[in-house]
Amino acid sequence: MNCEEVRDYCLSLKNTTECFPFDEVSLVFKVENKMFLLLALDAEEPVIAVKCDPDEAEQLREHYQAVAPAYHFNKKHWNNIYLERDMPAKEIRHWIHHAYQEVIAKLPKRIREQYADE
User: pTM (2 decimals)?
Assistant: First the structure.
């Protein structure tokens, strides 16, 4: 999976927006104005930072060389996924969707209900 495919997949998720809140090389994807993924456009090796359930975050790091604690983020809740390592594209898409769902799960109930089919 490459950076453009990550971007396309993120934008296919309901109400996802993209922005550059930190600098011109850190592309952030949000749902309901809450960040679920950061794509580092200037990285030597293509990498994304994804929000993750804390228990699953640790297991994921143990299972894939492509996964590491996210730099500059709360390492309990965020993982880096290196796109050109040992994680298949289907699995990367799964964890992007997981990150999206992690944000939705913490939204107020009236907003969360709009995402019941996601």
Answer: 0.94
DSSP reduced 3-state for 45: coil
**For the chain, how are helix, strand and coil distributed in percent, rounded to 5?**
35, 25, 35
Is the separation of the CB atoms in 44 and 116 below 8 Å?
A: no
In degrees rounded to 5, what are phi and psi of residue 52?
-150, 145
pLDDT tens, position by position, 51-83: 999 999 999 999 999 999 998 899 999 999 999
Domains, the chain, ordered by start? 3-115 (3.90.1150.30)
CA dist., res. 76 & res. 57, Å (int): 7
